[in-house]
Write a structure and sequence with these properties.
By secondary structure, this protein is α+β, with helices and mostly antiparallel strands. It contains five helices and four strands; from the N terminus they run E-E-H-E-H-E-H-H-H. Helix 3 packs across helix 5.
Length: 156
């Protein structure tokens, strides 16, 4: 008679949090993926750090579309907005992930990494970083994430 298999696993609360965005050059329509990974929950300070990084990398005015998460309205973000005139934050409507091209980025990464089983948080961080780099190198995948969103078409 067969026996029911027993699957043993370690239930841990380790996590990796990420903040990311796809930038599109208004002149050449070149897509660039920006991403930062953290070993804990992202707070307003990490959002401000990410936005400062974008400001250093992207010249001219920077329009950032983001969801309505409370961390995007946190004090460090508001303080950054008062110190720069180049940064413009525009929220997506509430409960509208279908408008956010970044959702396509994370859906792609989840599908790609679905069958992996890193043993440690460090291994997961390495695998995730490698896959993010592969995705960032693919204009067709980045454009696909924008096209699959319900944003009005703006790419040729």
């Amino acid at each position: 008679m067969g026996q029911t298999p027993i699957f043993h696993h370690r239930y841990r609360h380790d996590r990796i949090s990420a903040i990311s965005g796809v930038a599109v050059s208004p002149k050449w329509y070149h897509c660039t993926l920006y991403c930062q990974l953290y070993e804990d929950n992202i707070q307003g300070e990490e959002v401000a750090v990410f936005l400062r990084h974008l400001l250093r990398q992207i010249h001219g005015h920077l329009v950032v579309l983001l969801d309505n998460g409370t961390i995007h309205r946190a004090d460090p973000v508001q303080e950054l907005l008062t110190r720069t005139t180049r940064l413009h934050l525009e929220p997506f409507p509430s409960h509208a992930p279908e408008l956010n091209p970044d959702e396509g980025i994370w859906n792609h990464l989840k599908r790609t990494l679905a069958n992996g089983r890193p043993d440690t948080q460090e291994e997961l961080m390495d695998v995730l970083a490698d896959e993010i780099c592969r995705l960032a190198d693919s204009q067709s995948l980045l454009r696909g994430c924008i096209h699959q969103s319900d944003l009005p078409p703006f790419l040729p």
